[in-house]
Amino acid sequence: MPSDAILRIEDKEYKLPVIVGTEGERAIDCRNLRANTGHITFDEGYGNTGSCESQVTFIDGEAGILRYRGYPIEQLAEKSDFVETAYLVMHGELPTPSQRQRFSAYLRENADMHRGLYRLLEEFPPDSHPMAVLSAAMNALGCYYPHLCTNNHERDLQNYEEASAVAVSKVRTLTAMSYRLSKGLALVHPKRNLTYCENFLHMMFSEPYYDFIPEPEVVRALNLILLLHADHEQNCSTSTVRMVASSGANLFASVSAGISALWGPLHGGANMAVIDMLEQIHAAGDDGSRFIEAAKNGKARLMGFGHRVYKNYDPRAKIIGRACDSVLAKLGRKDPLLDIARHLEQAALKDSYFVERKLYPNVDFYSGIIMRAIGIPLNMFTVMFAIGRMPGWIANWREIASTSKARIYRPRQIYTGAVKRDYIATNQR
Length: 429
Ligand code: ACO
Hints:
By secondary structure, this protein is mainly alpha-helical. Helix content is 51%, strand content 6%.
């Protein structure tokens, strides 16, 4: 049993229980701190705050370890695919053959969309950002499945199998359809005989008069990218999903909020920012050295580098970095941005600024290079992340929804505004 922590405030001592996770992570339980001491904790950015107990994903940022439901990410990347991993993340176990079949059938049956959703997508201006469209469309999706989103968690959980499959299947279709509508292309409906990733590529790149048949390497690369994004414990978007879910909100409303949180350049938006950065470096004729100097002087930020939790290599970056070479080689392509990225990485890993701050490449550093190689347009990189992350958001929604004593997420604050003052009439101001 871990010993209690002792907190001394002025001349009084308080015992705070220490709790330990299954991987030995230790936390000081502050749940009764305010009631017992009148104090709250202050942890802007939540870097030291455990907001929940969770069984989905384990990360050891110091050691560069990532596991979904106990399975190392390296093993899943090598042996699994996105659909199987999505099932694992959402349901807690790898599927048996019949569970996999049932899940695939659900995904297939839910691949197409109600006409109303097409009309909704059509109304957005063609240059709308795909993340804005996807967030709106995922929330609107609930309107077409009222029995799956009653905002009564007990009832919503009874339909979890269907709701989770609808969300995973539709996020891909909504993404592909909004791309085609933004380009003024004819809509291409999903096919029943294609796998999840094949169907996505088909809806993106086929035409009514021509079937796009992707190289197997492209399908594998897409599976890998999505699988590596499937969950990442309490990051900004997942915490947002849990925050929204904690009010009792349904699955579609909660994941829609997650998509909005993911959009920012410090989170999922970094994968687009990395390519922008590499293109700028390329256009300036720099090999990255000048950019590194600018980052050290605070004049630039090396996008795709650094992570709140990883103080070592992000294991996903290692896997994607290796895959970049093999995917480009198999597709017979060269990408000058990959050379710049490699040079930036090598230079940063030797530079004391990055070494001292433990800044390593994160998942976004190389993922854009693979997405470019498989033909995904730059402004869609972050929605690809959202497709991949959907299982993790769903699993976290479920944890909140199924915790009988779950409390609404409601942090406190330290107020630093004006103290009490009296109202002044307009003519006296
Ligand atoms: N380039 C240059 N310096 C950096 C970078 C970077 N990418 N990241 C952190 N630093 C520096 C900070 O300036 C700070 O330096 P200081 O101590 O001299 O002030 C120090 O490293 C610590 O950085 P913080 O910003 O405090 O780290 P935090 O944990 O708050 O932020 C974050 C993490 C947001 C990921 C940050 O590293 C960053 O902005 N990286 C670039 C954006 C990015 O790649 N985001 C994707 C993250 S992964 C994901 O969401 C999928």
